[in-house]
Amino acid sequence: MRVAIAGAGAVGRSVAGELLENGHEVLLVDKAPTAISVERVPQAEWLLADACEITSLDEAALERCHVVIAATGDDKVNLVVSLLAKTEYGVPRVVARVNNPKNEWLFNESWGVDVAVSTPRLMSALVEEAVSVGDLVRLLRFSQGDANLVELTLPPESTLAGTRVGDVSWPEDTALVTIIRGSRVLTPDPDDVLEAGDELLFVAAPAREEQLEELLSTRG
């Protein structure tokens, strides 16, 4: 998979390193000469250019990319890169970094964003996830399709503890995608039995989050 990352700062380089380790082809784009540190991510392609310029994106061959990640520290730049990637080059998947939570409402499909990642929100969510049992925690927002990635740790008193996944009447527009049990990551199967302390990850419509939380947290 070919991935272009706009922004070669700490965030961009870190993401590039992870993707390269997983066998993907990565191009890092940044207009600041001081950001071009090839020795830090030598396996990546590097391009000194302004990712907000069509000529730069042409040079980057964005039309050949499967994913574009707008990872600069400037929300305006990330929005422009996302819009150009989606509308001018038809990139299938556009992920954008949100630096200021006040701007999060802008990062949606109208700006070409498929997934918006708010670092402050994610840090807050991870803190909540670490201390919350029985409370729904929103981890990520998927702009396309109007859905969120949410997590809930099943409390010991939940009526669903000991219930087969296939026997649960999940709310509409909700999908259980992963069960984290201790150090294991389980792909949900209808015959899997839910256990107290399971971390359950769902993709759910925002309108269903309250209903989902009530279902999972209901005490016996």
Automatic annotation (TrEMBL):
SUPFAM superfamilies in alphabetical order: NAD(P)-binding Rossmann-fold domains, TrkA C-terminal domain-like
Recorded GO MF terms: monoatomic cation transmembrane transporter activity
PROSITE patterns named among the record's database cross-references: RCK_C (PS51202), RCK_N (PS51201)
Transport in keyword set: yes
Gene Ontology biological process terms in this record: potassium ion transport
InterPro entries for the chain: NAD(P)-bd_dom_sf, RCK_C, RCK_C_sf, RCK_N, Trk_Ktr_HKT_K-transport
RCK N-terminal domain: residues covered: 1-117
Classification via Pfam families: TrkA_C, TrkA_N
Start and end residues of each RCK C-terminal domain: 137-218
Annotated keywords: Ion transport, Transport
Protein name (record): Trk system potassium uptake protein TrkA
The species this protein was found in: Streptomyces qinglanensis
